[in-house]
Specification:
The protein is mainly α. Helix content is 56%, strand content 5%. The radius of gyration is 17 Å and the shape is globular.
C-alpha cells in the first residue's frame, strides 16, 4: 500500500466512526447531549461540534484558505455557542452539514496522490499563537485530522459511558475491516 492509500483508509475509518458517534448521540436526550462533563470539550454536543469544525477548517485550509473558520464560529468559540449565521443548533443540522463535508473530503481524497502529500500548506492560526503563519505538509495535515478524530472519539465515548449509555459505539479500525470482509464473503 502506498502512502496515499493508507491515508485514504484512515479517512474512511474516520468517516465511519463519525457516523457511529452521530448515531449514538441521536439516542441521547437533549439534556444528556449537552450535559456538562469534565472531559473533552465539556459535553458530547460541543465535542461533536469540535470534531466537525476541525475537519471543516482543515479541509478548507488544504484547499487554499489559510485563515478558514467554521461557519457560525466566532474567534475563541465553537460553532453553535451563539446563534450566528451558519451556526449549528441541532443534531439534525450537524448530521446534514457533516454529510456534505464528508462528500467534499471524499472528493479531495479521491484525487490524492503521493506527490501531493509533500506539498506545503500554510495555516494562519486563529486560536493558539493567533495570526502566526505556520507551514505543514499536506500529508501531515491529513494524518493529523485522523489522529485528532481518534483522540476526540475516545473522549466522546468516555462521555457516553459517563452518561450511562449501555451500547457504546465500536470505533476500532479492525472492526471496520472485519465488517467489510464479512460483507465481501
Amino acid at each position: 500500500m502506498d502512502a496515499s492509500t493508507v491515508i485514504g483508509r484512515l479517512h474512511e475509518h474516520r468517516a465511519w466512526t463519525n457516523r457511529k458517534l452521530l448515531a449514538a448521540a441521536g439516542k441521547l436526550t437533549d439534556e444528556q447531549l449537552r450535559r456538562d462533563l469534565p472531559i473533552g470539550q465539556g459535553c458530547v454536543w460541543k465535542s461533536l461540534l469540535h470534531l466537525y469544525a476541525a475537519e471543516y477548517v482543515w479541509l478548507e485550509t488544504i484547499q487554499g484558505d489559510p485563515t478558514a473558520t467554521c461557519p457560525g464560529d466566532a474567534p475563541g468559540q465553537l460553532p453553535g455557542n451563539q446563534a450566528g449565521e451558519g451556526a449549528i443548533e441541532t443534531l439534525d443540522q450537524l448530521n446534514e452539514k457533516w454529510n456534505a463535508l464528508e462528500s467534499r473530503w471524499t472528493n479531495h481524497l479521491d484525487h490524492l496522490d503521493s506527490e501531493s502529500l509533500d506539498m506545503t500548506v500554510y495555516r494562519i492560526s486563529t486560536s493558539s499563537n493567533g495570526g502566526k503563519k505556520r507551514a505543514t505538509s499536506h500529508g501531515d495535515i491529513l494524518l493529523h485530522v485522523c489522529t485528532h478524530a481518534q483522540y476526540t472519539t475516545a473522549q466522546v465515548i468516555n462521555m457516553l459511558r459517563q452518561l450511562g449509555v449501555a451500547e457504546l459505539p465500536d470505533p476500532m479500525l479492525i472492526s471496520l475491516a472485519r465488517s467489510q470482509c464479512v460483507e465481501n464473503m
